[in-house]
Structures are given as structure tokens and as C-alpha cells.
Amino acid sequence: MDSSKLVEIVTIAIVGGLAAILANKGIAxxxxxxxxxxxxxxxxxxxxxxxxxxxxxxxxxxVIGFGIPVSIGASILLVHSVLLMTDIIGTWAPxxxxxxxxxGVVGAIYGVGLVLGLxxxxxxxxxxxxxxxxxxxxxxxxxxxxxxxxxxxxxxSQHGFKKGSISFIATLLTLFIVKQFGTFNLGNGTTLTxxxxxxxxxxxxxxxxxxxxxxxxxxxxxxxxLVSVFLERVNKIKKNWIWLSVTGGVISAATSLLLIxxxxxxxNLMSEGKFNEAALAAFARGIGFIPLVFSTAIVTxxxxxxxxxxVFVAGILLRGNPIMAFIVGVLLMFVEVQLLTVMxxxxxxxxxxxxxxxxxxxxxxxxLEIALLIGGAMASESIAPGIGYFWVIGLLLLNQKAKRPVxxxxxxxxxxxxxxxxxxxxxxxxLFTPVVTG
Length: 438
Known about the structure:
The chain crosses the membrane at residues 6-30, 51-68, 100-127, 139-157, 164-182, 194-213, 241-262, 282-303, 310-335, 370-398, 405-432. Keywords: Membrane, Transmembrane, Transmembrane helix. InterPro entries: Uncharacterised_YhfT (IPR019733). The protein is globular, with a radius of gyration of 22 Å. Helices cover 74% and strands 3% of the residues. Helix 1 packs antiparallel against helix 12 (241-256), helix 15 runs antiparallel to helix 16 and helix 17 (351-383) runs parallel beside helix 19. Strands 1-4 form a two-stranded parallel ribbon. Strands 2-3 form a two-stranded antiparallel sheet. The protein has a domain at 3-145 and 222-351. By secondary structure, it is mostly helical.
């Protein structure tokens, strides 16, 4: 094995190991939808088993149905195929020192396994009698678009239906306009497509902050009591700045080695050698992710191992120089963590923004619950047409009556995965034949 290949293997192993450890410690998870759930476990509101089940349900289908297939043929891993699985590994591993060791080792092995055997993994799933992995990718489809709805829901909850409706319409118009007119020709046959979901979320966040700032203070000097509302959670992130900074640096280094990419657009551009365009696409994506990552971090005290994703931009611009990419990535993540503290202090000066936190968490959970349920139903119907909707609705209602119900967020995805397993077992004994289309 040559030295360059060894460097790549060691780098991806460190990425996988560190990310899994961060998930196990509750410091950072990559799945935006999982971030609001982690504090529920840390505060004892849900069990370790429920957290693990939720993580698996939310991420596994995206790993197999989205992350890995997108990576095939490009020789570059879509980071979702790595970090979504390390979320699962970290949450499934036990707590304490034993869990950290298990998370780090398994996460590292998984990262190396992806680099060495990506195609073998997909081929193994293809050997199943009924291939339901393609259908599982539909589980996360509604989440991407529906996430930009949560600011309007939070506004309606905090400020009333009228303001929530205004925000919803503005978000919808942004989504429509960017989808229709957000593609720009950069020359040489290259195009840049803005993230409609990211920009519509940004507009919704602007409305949410604007309405919150308009709430007048009662005149009392309550900054000391307000510090605990946001800064307690932000300080949790700040305390772990070394873990986060090193992880950000390693992710940037892995990007510079062309091992991983942050999104399908930059991945395809990188695989074609269009690195400047890839960096621009990654930068535009990062801008759109600032409100999402910062807001969820401030509210939940849980960060993303890739931060606001600007570490990918640094990696692309510093391609072939992993050491410099690592240094810049560390600095970028450190600056992000410090900005969180500044933003949290600013938020504490406004009572409306202080109160906004709980509305954000509630809105996120509700939006995710509905989106994942719809995605699970879509995937189940694709797996077993004519049965899927019945299956998901039935499990949803029965779950509500169970003595120990599954977390609502996990019902749709778990239902789809269970149905996929069941139809394969039925196929083996000749009781199910998949519908062939086309």
C-alpha cells in the first residue's frame, strides 16, 4: 500500500472515529433532525434505547438510499454516508468510557470500510430478494423541504396565526422563486444552483428573529436569569471546542484529499475537476446552513461535527494540502464556536428571542414528526404498493396505545424498515412478489 493511500485511510478512520465519539457524548450529531432529540436523552426524558432507535430510523435509510448511492462512481464519498452512520454508531454504543472506545473503534472501521468497499456494501444489499433500500431513501425526502417550514410554525405558536401565515407565504415565495430562477450559468457549461431549501429557511429565520426582536422588554434587568436560557447550552458546546475543532480540521483535511464532499453538487463538480465551482457551491450551501446549525445549536446545546459546513469550502480550496486544510478547518470551527457565544449573549438581551427557543424546539419536533411519518408512508407504499399506507397508519395508531410507545419521530422510518424486512421474508417463502414497473 503506497503512502498516499495510507494517509487517506488514516484520515477517514479519524473522521469516522471522532464523529462517532461526538455523537456518543452528545456533543454533536450530523443529522439536523436528530439534534433536537439528543437533549431529550441527556435530560432523561427519553431512554438510550429510544435515542438509538430514533437515530437509526432517521439516518439509516438516508445512508443506504442517498449517501452511498450518490457516492458510487464519483470516487468521492458524500459525507452523509459517513456522518449519518456515525450518528447511529455513537447513539447505539453504551454511555461512559466503554462507549467512547466502542464508538471510536467502530466509527473508524466503518469509515475505512466505506473507502475500501463502498461498492461491495451496495452489492450486498442488492442481493436481497426484494431490494427495498431505494425506497427507503424516500423517508428523508420530505424532511429536506419541510425543515424550512419550522420558523413559520414557531412564529404562529409565539406570535399568532396571522404573523405565522405571513412568514409561511414569504418562505413559500422564496422557495418557488429560487427553484425557478436560482440557477446561474458560470460559463464553460458549468452552472450554480442555489439551495432553495436553505434560502427559504433563511427567510423564515429572518422573519422569526424580526418578530421576536419587536417584543418589548418589561423593563426589568433580567440578563442574569436569561444567561441560563441559552448560554448554558452554548457553554456546553464551548467546553468541547477542542473536540469540535479537531473534528472540523480532519473533515477539512479529508475534503482536501478528495475523500469526501459536503453535498451532491460539489461532489459532482469535484469529481469533474471543477474545484472553484465546487468551492462556490459549497460556500452557497454553507450560507444557507448558518441559521439552521446556529439556531439548533443554541437551542439544543448540540452542534454538528461539520459545523456550518464551511470546512468543506476550506478543504476544496486547499485540495492536495491536508495539513493546511486541517489547520484552517480547526480555526474555522473554533471561530464558529466563539460566534455561538456572541449570538447567545445578543439573544439574551431580547425577551422575545429568549422565549423563541422553546417554540423553535417544539416546531422542529412537530415538523420532523410529520415529515418523517409522510416519508415513511411514501417509502412503505413504494415497498409494498396497496399495503404501505395501511401499514404505517396502523402502526402509528397502535403505537399511541402501547404501554411503552416508540418515539413519534421514529414511527414512520421504523415502519418502512420493518416492512422491507417482512416482504423479504415473505418473498423467501413465496408469499410476496415485488411489483415491477417500467
